[in-house]
Amino acid sequence: MAVGSSNDFDLIVLGAGTGGYTAAFRGAQLGLRVALVDEDKLGGTCLHRGCIPTKAMLESAAFNERIRHAADYGLNLPAGDVGVDFPQIAKRRDQIVTRMWKGVTSLVKKNDVTWIAGRGRLDGPQKVVVKLNGEDGTPGAGGEVNLRGTDVILATGSRVKSLPGIEPDGKRIFTSDDVLKSTTMPASVIVIGAGAVGVEFASMYKDLGAEVTLLEYLPAIVPLEDREVSKELERTFNRRGLKVITNARFDADSVKSDDEGVSITVGPEGKDRSEIRAEMLLVAAGRATNVENVGLETTSAEVERGIVKVDGHMRTREPHLYAIGDVVGGLMLAHTAGHEGMTAVHTIVGDPDVHAMDYAKQPRATYCRPEIASIGLTEQECEARGLPIRTSKVPFQAIAKALIGGEYEGFAKVIANTDTGDTLGIHLIGPHATDLIAEGSLALTLEAAPWEIGVATHPHPTLSEIMGEAAMAIDGRSINW
Ligand SMILES: Cc1cc2nc3c(=O)[nH]c(=O)nc-3n(C[C@H](O)[C@H](O)[C@H](O)COP(=O)(O)OP(=O)(O)OC[C@H]3O[C@@H](n4cnc5c(N)ncnc54)[C@H](O)[C@@H]3O)c2cc1C
């Protein structure tokens, strides 16, 4: 433990994932004496078991797919398949994670935050009891310390979960954590769940040469996205040879694994089920929040179905206790956790300019191929709210840089309120969509109408032009479409 002369802090942050460390660093920048507690490595799910390692592997997969088309670009590579060296993919993944981890670790010192390695538990709203890790990292071997904080932020995040009756074993039945520890490449994979995590892994394994079957209980893959985006992704997946079963129905006891592989008896609702086999089954069925055994029962904070209830400033019902990140449910994204962390800390210091969280202004990003990114309302959500809307849709085919890059599937869609002219939603599916949505994020933060996005000059030739074109298309003024 690196605790100084006193165990009293202005702010204690319990959990050092993206939410927790962002809150801790900003708190220190605002002049607070901050303790940051984690039983594991700084960086949490995103850095060690989520965003970063998955994107590193997806990059290898996309590179592999690109190389297959080398001849189209006038590059004659030796004939035959490109060999996939999965241990090297895993090594590169782990190197990137380690490098990022070292970088963020150095920021603890730079920001003058007190790092406390151990398992923490609230003891009332303003006290955290930490069972310290030993010198060698052994949990609890370093004794116990009581920390007192004027304010406490709970940022204990989430963990993988499976479906009832399906027991991941890391051999045939995997969770995302297992994939990210694995150094072997399966020849065939069944993925259960077509949310962001499921479609990313499905896309990755397909690009690395595996046979992939994707099962989704709901009628659409990426079911939270605009329906046109879901349909476009399903079309693209089908074209790439991924087998997609929506409305998928199976009984957990039909899942059988042995030395050869794993099988499941599944079919679309109302149709005959049949057995499919693969070398590996990946359960991508969402996350469980870490709200147990953290002492919430010693406070008056409200927890409903695993979610800590907070207001727009991340305040729980207990004065001085805040909660951020995956434990408060909702989008469960790293950048949202970070934003919530900053909102909590600015609220704590009484910043008069702090805004309540507005989740309609939080971008969402999925790194399958083609990528998906969105912000604001989907067309279906607008309809459900009875909002008067106009929409525009411009395909990536209209954008020169997309053709140059050789990836031009997908589109940008903008939704505006007919009465007020406000931008209600921006939806992208296509190359580098996850980078392009940053402009949508700025636009919604500044409350820009589509014409204001369109009036900004987008450099040519760039993929960013699709934002300008789609924004102008709302008023029938797209130039290149
Ligand atoms: C496979 C996968 C891919 C993802 N990809 C993306 C992506 O591309 N983009 C994106 O935005 N999001 C992505 N996410 C989601 C993102 O990782 C999470 O939303 C984000 O990590 C949440 O941050 P957090 O700070 O709330 O919690 P976490 O990152 O989960 O951190 C919580 C921390 O609290 C610690 N902790 C828990 N309990 C205790 C305790 N009692 N005492 C001490 N420490 C404790 C844990 O050790 C952990 O370090 C992905 C998630 C997964 C699983």
Describe the protein's architecture and organization.
The protein is of the alpha/beta class and 481 residues long. It folds into 3 domains: 8-48 and 93-158 and 288-359, FAD/NAD(P)-binding domain (3-Layer(bba) Sandwich), CATH 3.50.50; 173-285, FAD/NAD(P)-binding domain (3-Layer(bba) Sandwich), CATH 3.50.50.60; 370-473, Enolase-like, domain 1. Helices cover 30% and strands 25% of the residues. The protein is built from 13 helices and 24 strands. It has a 5-stranded mixed beta barrel. Strands 7-15-8-9-10 form a 5-stranded parallel sheet. The chain has a 5-stranded antiparallel sheet with strand order 20-21-24-23-22, sandwiched between helices. α1 runs parallel beside α8 (334-348) and α3 (51-68) packs parallel to α6 (196-207). It is globular and about 65 Å long. The termini are far apart.
